C-alpha cells in the first residue's frame, strides 16, 4: 500500500469533533503495514527466483524433452555449479554451470558457423581492436557462438565458430588438422623444408607439423603446411626461426571442411552431415 493511501486512512480515522482516533483505526493501520511488508517479501522472493527452470534449460540444450529432464533431475544426474539438484522447479541463471551426467551443457542448440576470414580482421570480441570476426558474423545466429582457434589479423581463410563446449574441449585437447597455404619472403630451401618435417626445437619445445610440401606449379617460396595447433602464431615461429618472413597465411582446409563455394568475407552454417563428420574424427 502506498504512503498516500496510508495518509488517507489516517485522516479518515481521526474524530474531527473530539480530536481522537476512531475505534479500530490502529488495527487498520497495522493490517496495511503487514500487507506492505508481505508484498515486499513476495517481490524479493520473486527476484531471487528469476531465471529459467532447470528442466527447460536441459530441454533447450537438445538433450531430451522436459519430461525426460525431470527424470534425470530426480535421479541425481544434473548438477548446478557443482551441486547435485533434485528439485523439479529449481531455476538457473545464464551464468550458472549446469552439468548433465558430468558433461557441461548449453541451453542453446549446438550451432556451428564457418567463416572465410578476410585480411585485416581481428579474431577477438574486443571493441578496441577495430573490425573483428564477431562483427562479420553478428547476424549469423542469436546463439552465443565464439571462434574455435585463432587466425592473426592479417591471416585469411577458414575459421569456425560454435557454442558447443563438448566440441571445443574435444578438439582443444586432441587438436584439429588445418592446412595452410603460406607465402614466404624468399624461396624455402630444401634442407629447411626437411628440418620442418623432422620437427624443430624452438624455445626448448619441439614443434611438430603433420605435413609440409611445396605448392605445385608455384615458386618455392609458397608451401602447404598441415598442422594441428589451434593458433597460427606457431607458423610464424617456425619460419622466423629459420630466417624467413611470412608474407601470407591462408587456412584452406579445416578438419573435413574446405573453402568451396564460400567467398572471402562470407559465412555459412554447417550442414548436419558436416557436423557428423567431425564426430567421426
Structure description:
The protein is an alpha+beta fold. 32% of the residues lie in helices and 24% in strands. It has three domains: 3-48; 52-104, RNA-binding S4 domain (Structural Genomics Hypothetical 15.5 Kd Protein In mrcA-pckA Intergenic Region, Chain A); 112-279, Pseudouridine synthase (2-Layer Sandwich), CATH 3.30.2350.10. α3 (54-60) packs across α4 (66-74). The relative contact order is 0.11. Mean pLDDT is 83; it is low at 1-48.
Topology, element by element:
Elements: H1 3-12, H2 25-48, E1 52-53, H3 54-60, H4 66-74, E2 78-80, E3 83-84, E4 91-92, E5 98-100, E6 103-104, E7 112-117, H5 133-136, E8 146-148, E9 156-162, H6 165-174, E10 178-184, H7 190-198, E11 200-202, E12 205-207, E13 211-214, E14 222-227, H8 233-241, E15 246-254, E16 257-258, E17 267-269, H9 272-279
Parallel strand pairs: 9-15
Antiparallel strand pairs: 1-4, 2-3, 2-5, 5-6, 7-9, 7-17, 8-9, 10-14, 10-15, 11-12, 13-14, 15-16
Helix pairs in contact: 3-4
Amino acid at each position: 500500500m502506498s504512503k498516500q493511501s496510508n495518509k488517507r486512512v489516517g485522516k479518515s480515522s481521526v474524530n474531527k469533533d473530539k480530536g481522537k482516533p476512531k475505534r479500530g483505526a490502529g488495527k487498520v493501520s497495522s493490517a496495511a503495514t503487514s500487507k506492505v511488508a508481505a508484498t515486499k517479501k513476495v517481490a524479493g522472493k520473486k527476484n531471487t527466483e528469476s531465471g529459467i527452470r532447470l528442466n527447460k534449460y536441459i530441454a533447450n540444450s537438445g538433450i531430451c524433452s522436459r519430461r525426460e529432464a525431470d527424470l534425470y533431475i530426480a535421479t541425481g544426474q544434473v548438477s548446478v555449479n557443482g551441486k547435485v539438484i533434485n528439485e523439479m522447479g529449481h531455476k538457473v541463471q545464464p551464468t550458472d554451470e549446469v552439468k548433465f551426467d558430468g558433461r557441461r551443457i548449453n541451453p542453446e542448440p549446438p550451432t556451428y558457423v564457418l567463416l572465410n576470414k578476410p585480411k585485416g580482421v581481428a579474431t577477438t570480441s574486443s571493441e578496441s581492436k577495430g573490425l573483428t570476426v564477431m562483427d562479420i558474423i553478428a547476424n549469423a545466429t542469436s546463439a552465443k557462438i565464439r571462434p574455435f582457434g585463432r587466425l592473426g589479423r592479417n591471416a585469411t581463410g577458414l575459421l569456425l565458430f560454435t557454442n558447443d563446449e563438448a566440441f571445443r574441449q574435444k578438439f582443444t585437447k586432441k587438436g584439429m588438422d588445418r592446412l595452410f597455404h603460406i607465402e614466404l619472403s624468399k624461396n624455402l630451401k630444401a634442407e629447411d623444408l626437411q628440418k620442418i618435417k623432422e620437427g624443430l626445437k624452438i624455445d626448448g619445445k619441439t614443434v611438430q607439423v603433420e605435413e609440409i610440401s611445396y605448392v605445385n606449379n608455384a615458386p618455392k617460396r609458397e608451401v602447404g603446411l598441415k598442422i594441428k595447433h589451434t593458433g597460427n602464431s606457431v607458423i610464424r615461429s617456425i619460419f622466423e626461426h629459420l630466417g624467413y618472413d611470412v608474407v601470407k597465411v591462408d587456412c584452406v582446409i579445416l578438419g573435413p571442411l574446405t573453402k568451396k563455394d564460400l567467398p572471402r568475407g562470407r559465412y555459412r552454417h554447417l550442414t548436419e552431415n558436416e557436423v557428423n563428420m567431425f564426430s567421426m574424427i
